[in-house]
Amino acid sequence: MRNPRRPKGPGKAILVLFLAFASASLRADDPSVLRFATVSNLPPYSFVEGGNLKGIDIEVAREIANRAGVAVEIETMPWARVLRSMETGQADGAFSMYYVKARESFLVYVGIMHYDSLGLLVNASAPVGFRGMETLTGLTVARGRGVFVSDSFEAAAAEGKIKVIDSDDTQMGNVRMLTAGRVDAVIGVVETMLYYADELGVSDRVMAESVPIDGNRPGYLALSKASPAATDPAFQKRLSAAIQSVMTDGTYRRILEKYKPGSP
Q1: Are 179 and 59 contained in the same domain?
Q2: Which of the residues 172, 227, 237, 241 has an alpha carbon 20 to 30 A from that of 9?
Q3: Backbone angles phi, psi at 146, to 5 degrees
Q4: Number of domains in the chain
């Protein structure tokens, strides 16, 4: 992966894809543009470099929009706010969303945009030997606010078996807490956490647990049920077909190789 510049907080990085749009009105304020929400602190999927929003997800979203014949405005924000914007309809869509059944009350999962490895970053001098959620009993674990880990993790956290610190982690705060000894582990996308450890100059002090929580977790493009886009079956069918073609005709592989050379 190329070395992206560290995002300077959530900010407001906007990417507008000016493309032909021939469907019915999908936004009250501008019927020609859909608003999609995502984060800017998830290299190599979505990050800011040289003032520009880029990454695997951004290029995939651009290609999906092109093939679906829509114009999309992409705005970045903390992940918890991405979820709120989907509940309220302030965003027409968002990416990349882990599948969480409860969220089907306010969003529609349209198609998979990428696969990532969700895992644990720990201090190299104090690995936890992760083999399942029971390994984390009695530990303090940090994660990004709104990030779903698993049903068993959420249950253990609710029962107090795992102490969880949730944060809008836009400034590498979770990795800083780990190296400061405030938490025993950080949960997140493995390649993103290792990138930030390198940025902080602490790569020699931390390590990813060899067993991931989920080594091939899909991230979806989703539509808000509060958006008119989610009530247009023809549009959803066109969007789904565009995602499928991007993911299967070699385009996704080409984009993946650009940011993650040698990926399996």
Answers
A1: no
A2: 227
A3: 90, -5
A4: 2
* CATH label of the domain that carries residue 238: 3.40.190.10
The string of DSSP codes covering 3-65 is -PPPP-SSTT-EEEE-----SS---SS-TTEEEEEE-SEETTTEEEETTEEESHHHHHHHHHH
Say which amino acid occupies 158: A
Reduced to 3 states, what is the DSSP secondary structure of residue 133?
helix
Q: Answer yes or no: is pLDDT of 96 > 90.
A: yes
Name residue, tokens 């405030």: 182
R_g of the chain, CA atoms, integer Å:
18
User: Rounded to the nearest 5°, which phi and psi values hold at 124?
Assistant: -60, -25
Prediction pTM value: 0.84
Q: How far apart are CA 169 and CA 215, in angstroms?
A: 22
User: In sequence order, which residues have a C-beta less than 8 Å from that of residue 191 and are 6 or more positions away?
Assistant: 1, 43, 44, 116, 117, 260
**β-strands 163-167, 140-144 pairing:** parallel
Contact status, residue 192 vs residue 119, Cβ threshold 8 Å: no
Share of residues in the chain with pLDDT > 70 (%): 87
Nearest CA-CA partner of 229 in 97, 106, 112, 93 = 93
Give yes or no: residues 20 and 106 share one domain. Answer: yes
8 A C-beta contact, residue 136 and residue 187: no
The pLDDT of 197-201, averaged and rounded, is 93
